[in-house]
Amino acid sequence: xxxxxxxxxxxxxxxxxxxxxxxxxxxxxxxxxxxxxxxxxxxxxxxxxxxxxxxxxxxxxxxxxxxxxxxxxxxxxxxxxxxxxxxxxxxxxxxxxxxxxxxxxxxxxxxxxxxxxxxxxxxxxxxxxxxxxxxxxxxxxxxxxxxxxxxxxxxxxxxxxxxxxxxxxxxxxxxxxxxxxxxxxxxxxxxxxxxxxxxxxxxxxxxxxxxxxxxxxxxxxxxxxxxxxxxxxxxxxxxxxxxxxxxxxxxxxxxxxxxx
Amino acid sequence: xxxxxxxxxxxxxxxxxxxxxxxxxxxxxxxxxxxxxxxxxxxxxxxxxxxxxxxxxxxxxxxxxxxxxxxxxxxxxxxxxxxxxxxxxxxxxxxxxxxxxxxxxxxxxxxxxxxxxxxxxxxxxxxxxxxxxxxxxxxxxxxxxxxxxxxxxxxxxxxxxxxxxxxxxxxxxxxxxxxxxxxxxxxxxxxxxxxxxxxxxxxxxxxxxxxxxxxxxxxxxxxxxxxxxxxxxxxxxxxxxx
Lengths: 260, 242
Prior knowledge:
The complex is a heterodimer of chains A (260) and B (242).
Chain A: H1 8-16, E1 32-36, E2 44-50, E3 53-64, E4 75-81, H2 97-112, E5 128-139, H3 144-157, E6 160-165, E7 168-176, E8 184-191, E9 194-197, H4 201-205, E10 207-215, E11 220-226, H5 233-257
Parallel strand pairs in A: 4-5
Antiparallel strand pairs in A: 1-2, 2-3, 3-5, 6-7, 8-9, 8-10, 10-11
Chain B: E1 7-8, E2 11-12, E3 24-28, E4 36-42, E5 45-56, E6 69-76, H1 92-106, E7 117-127, H2 132-147, E8 156-163, E9 166-169, H3 173-178, E10 181-188, E11 193-197, E12 200-201, H4 205-241
Parallel strand pairs in B: 6-7
Antiparallel strand pairs in B: 1-2, 3-4, 4-5, 5-7, 8-9, 8-10, 10-11, 10-12
């Protein structure tokens, strides 16, 4: 496979005319595809492509013990696996700080927006259901945050729900996992002084600061600034507006994919 | 273990005959970042393989001044089985499979062309239904060929086993759980040499011969699927210029 070598200089020159390498304007997403149910062994699954970025999310629902501070509800557990198959910048081994940040940011957006009805995951005083969300990077070309969130939400929204009978988990004739809401996220990167929505791999490589905003129709649900640079309050304001504007598009992509 | 009836009137639980493979489809180069990659659907198994390199072998003590080293990593996604949520990463089973898989490819890659380098092979099982190591090897062979790394042969792998007194080819998960024997084998088809062989359970010598014959006889079909997958991306280009 051939790779185009791109320099910071080139990105800067293109942006002077308001254009990115793939001729996108600064606040446009790449082409998004969402396919659900592609891994039927999992209770829920989804494959999302964002341009050349591909991720697969799988949901497994299993019995666990309730947390001390939440005795009457189950939990969600989110992990991001930056598999070395996805890029030569990912190495095999235990999760890197980057993978942990991605999984925690995706987790916060889903948790804060009450996407999963965790009260419905209660079984009895000793047992609750836990929904495990695993997000796999298959091909990296930037913005795993938004692709991962889309995949996680699409997988959760189509996830089945095992039954607990005679102290056993039964994975036949499963019902549906109860979902309250849909949340999405928008990730921005600043490259050569320009703020860009949905940065691709080259743009991320030359970016010095990044912001992810997770939201639903009404509220901002989670935010995370990353990397060494900084934003002005005015820039934050602009990105929040843009997020509310763009998330309608993302929500309708998810709703279309889950047949809602 | 409960006894489960795996053969009824000469048909298996999924309707196959004893020496029939599950449906297999292979796509070459689905992962753009990799030097070569492949995706295989083998029955309900869904597996990616990606190859990176040859590149400088690091850390330095792993490098060999005479030839390339193969680093293979087979893992299963935590959501890949119908049962409970698995643990991500490498367990002892995955470490063993990674090792024997690397050895299959050490046998066919022209390692001395790349002294001091490493070639990384990643096999990621997204969904499992028995026979993932064999499907993974078949898939990784396509990924390696797609990367252009020179090889003497294009290996394939498939497992055979035994239920009751019947030797069967390509066990699915349920058959694997209740079978009396399981024999995954990799074959280098040009010389019909065996480059992976594992077995557990019980087999007579005759049963082993039957199993190995089934594996070798299924080879021309699997090899053809591998070759077709490798040719496919180039057929499209030809159409465009016609």
